Amino acid sequence: MRFFSLPTKILLLTLALMLVLIVLVTSLSLQRLGDSFTEQQTLKRQQVEQHFTQYQLLLQNQQQSWFESFAELTGLQQQSGFSVFTQALQQRYDVLSLYLNIEALWVFTEDSPQAAFASSIFPTELASMVTQTQQEQRPQSRIYCATHCSNVVSLPVSDQNGNIAVLVSSQTLADVVIALGQALQSEVAIVRLDAAATTILSATGNLPALEQLALASWQNSNGAQFSLAEIPYFVYHIPLVQQQQQHFAILLLENISSYQAANNAFKWQLIALATLCFVLFALLTNMLTRRLTSRLLLICNALPMLAENKYRAFRDALPKSAGAMSDEVDQLYDAGQTLSRKLEQLQDNINTQTRELENMAMYDRLTGLANRNMLQYQLKKSIAALTESSALLGLLFLDMDQFKRVNDIRGHEQGDQLLIEASNRLRASLDKTDIICRFGGDEFIVVTEVADIDALTALANRLIAAFRQPMLLGDEEYQLNISIGISSTRNAQLKPDDLVRQADLAMYQAKGKGGNSLHFYSQQMFDDFQNRLALESDLKLALAQQQFTLHLQPKINLANRRLQGLEALLRWHSPARGMVSPDEFIAVLELAHLMIPVGYWVIEQSFRIMVQLQAAGFKDATLAINLSAAQLNDAKLPTFLDGLLQQHQLSAALFELELTESMLANNINETIKSMQRLKSRGFRLAIDDFGTGYSSLSYLRQMPVDTIKIDKSFVFGMLDNQADFDIITSTIAMVRKLGLEVVAEGVETQAQCKTLTQHQCDIGQGYLFSRPIPSDRLIEQLQANLHDNGQWR
């Protein structure tokens, strides 16, 4: 990038500003000169009009006065008729022409349309003027143009008998043109303009281009400027009269050379003054900025010393204060002094704290264990040192089971104390050569070198045993087991992140087994993970392409064998995979955060099915819909349900929303609030898979549920396993005592149905009664399985 010094920039800015100023001032001045010239020309035009009007009035008054005096001298009012008056006028005509400059004279009487006296042929265009004068009996005047323009005056005179005669006289305007030219010191002409040409009738001078000037001025009513014989003129016209498509006008031609000379002189004076001001201002600006820039350059040259930590040398290199003439550079000098001292002090503090910061960057502040940065550093070193004959490098990924519940219930402060206790147990259980890292949250990583896989298994079991002992914090006792994922390698090319990722994947497998266990990473596990990703992609496509369907499984009242309701079950027939089991894809929907959009699709389809059931006569049948944990706590769910109820005109009591017991164990307080919002709208609520959860019995009284569904795993073994039988019978007794309805899932044999009926189970659901029915065959299948008395076949 090209360098421009500060004086150069200021000078360029000054030049630009001065240039703009010159242009503005010049433009305004020229505009003012133009306006002044226009005003002068307008004034000149008004003067011409005034002078012409005065000359015209003077001619009219002169003719009227003379003819009136002549009528009195000849005694017209004592005569009968106008013959004596006409003869006297004819005798005096030469005198009139000589002294009054009268070019033509006519006398008209009332008794004859012909002129009683005519010095020349009377123009027919003036006949109306004679008639008007006779009728109005007052003088008339007008301008009439033919080969030249004249001022025509008509005067009424009367005899002894009151008869009226009209005396018409014509005077040329050539004298008026000459008088105007002399009065205004300009060239004046009377011109005629028609479609064929422009003709000069009279003029004060002989200008060869006057015809073209007349035409141009006629086209521009405000006048036009021309040069003739290198002399500038301004020409404009004053209309006189229009006769038979011909225009007659006075043309004024003014020499404006003196005006242009003065205008040009003013322009040069203005440019000279602006140039002088510009030069003086530029010199002054350069002089003022030179001192400023020299001091700024000293500061610029000294600034790199701050980057080199040469603070004392920086202060010595700064320009000295200007004293009484202090300016912004002096303020910059003071700021530089202060900055250098602050930076020097800060550098001293940084030097003393660098080791502490490095230590904090590599170790966890809460537990004192290594953090991720240290883990990456140590892993890179350990993996780089591996050989085929070296010891096995093992990595254990530990996660504390149920730790989140402690944080949610007891708070993060209590959780931090548990993490400190966990780190102490790890230190006590491992060798000093092992690397212990807090990976994040409640996750820990142990890196160790062992002889074989069995040693890793033994180490993992030792850690599980160490955490199996309860943790005591004050009076509180916590049982927090751990899940461990294990990966190992002798490959020096393996990336540290891959080794951690493998152990992380194995840890989730250990958690999937219920926790408090270990699991080794395998290639099959990676393949399963890849398959899960592919399944997740197919599920997104299935949702977009509407590949899901609903099947409905009837629920039968065991006491009277009547249809109690149905449960909506989601099914997926993939074009590539075929029919996919719900156990295979439901968990993937939850992990991929697709349960909410799929759940809303299920709810919407269920409402449409209920409309079909109502239309087919199944008025009392309810429809159970399974809700996921994410959908239950979705803020949009109540509004969505309200909209469907209003759209289909259905009662909320026709629907039963099923929640799994394991789902209720997480964030129980928020879950109960969500259930109460749904219950207040009239929906029935059911707990599905009862008996497989953790501690929901303690919250059962708080939950606004209507139905408890016993999981099918207990029903399958109830006749062969006494424990399952006891669980079912005690659950039925407890639930009925609470006033709730009991549903048994997975009923497949008559023996199971009979036993459940004997122990007063309300509703049965399973293959004994019906397999799930596709929604498009639901009404047909229901009608086929019901007797005439309404009992299920």
- Nearest-integer average pLDDT: 83
Helix coverage percent: 40-55%
Strand element count: 27
Q: Biggest sheet: strands side by side, in what order?
A: 18-19-21-22-23-24-25-26
| Anisotropy-based shape | elongated
Tell me the radius of gyration: 59 Å
Briefly note the structural class of the backbone: alpha+beta
Total helices: the number is: 26
**Cα distance, first to last residue?**
92 Å
Q: Strand-residue fraction?
A: 15-25%
Please mark out the parts with pLDDT under 50 across 5 or more consecutive residues, or reply none.
none
Structure commentary:
The chain is of the alpha+beta class. The chain is 51% helix and 22% strand. Strands 18-19-21-22-23-24-25-26 form an eight-stranded mixed barrel, surrounded by four helices. Strands 2-1-5-4-3 form a five-stranded antiparallel β-sheet, with helices on both faces. α12 packs antiparallel against α13. The radius of gyration is 59 Å and the shape is elongated. The model has no long low-confidence stretch (mean pLDDT 83).
